[in-house]
Amino acid sequence: MKSATAIAGLVSARVRDRMVDRVRELGVRDPRVLEALRQVPRHAFVDPALASRAYEDTALPIGHGQTISQPYIVARTAELALQDCADPKQAKVLEVGTGCGYAAAVLAQLFGTVISIERVRALHELARNNLRPLRIANLRLAFGDGALGVVGEAPFDAIAAAAAGEEVPAAWIEQLKPGGRIVAPVGVDDQRMTIVSKDTQGRVQRRTTEPVRFVPLRGGTV
Ligand code: SAH
Prior knowledge:
Layout: H1 2-8, H2 13-25, H3 31-39, E1 60-63, E2 66-68, H4 71-82, E3 92-96, H5 102-110, E4 113-118, H6 121-131, E5 139-143, E6 156-161, E7 163-164, H7 170-174, E8 176-186, E9 191-198, E10 204-212, E11 215-216
Helix pairs in contact: 2-3, 3-5, 4-5
Bound molecules: S-adenosyl-L-homocysteine (SAH).
S-adenosyl-L-homocysteine binds next to β2, α5 and β4.
């Protein structure tokens, strides 16, 4: 990702390091994730008018009522997706909810292949434009209802959701490889990060972790 690094170089390394320090203070310790956050130029994913705030640890508006996720939550999701992943560089990951493409770029630093799907066409196109100069060869964008997974790309070693459903969609569990895991916010008013893992026999286990606040997972496309 040479050009990304070049763009990132335009913003002072100190500002970006401060964002990474903040994420570490909040509890993300996986050095691979912290390095990925340091590599991806977050200001390239927000409106130029907001670029000066790109390295604050906050969500920012990206239009269409959606937001770029808080760096901490992108990092935490990536950290959870990496746990127990024997060989991330060989793993294929589905991200549901591309938005502006930031988290997809972070995940692509960590995993072998990333497919990211978005249901709002204008955001799918925004992400395509944001990502083009970064030339991330192992990231593919899809347009569609990610609640259905991406049949043509399945099965996945991990599925990471950036939008909260009332339940983990059955399609995601079906499209998960044995040994794989889903990291998804679940719930309406009271959301929890939820981890669904499938063991090598195909048995499914589910546990919930911290309270979170994500935008809702919606059906269909617009
Ligand atoms: N990953 C983004 C977060 C974007 S917010 C980042 O890097 O900051 C979550 C996104 O999920 C929104 O763009 C929303 O349109 C999208 N979304 C919601 N329901 C969806 C669905 N069923 N399929 C695909 N995308 C969905």
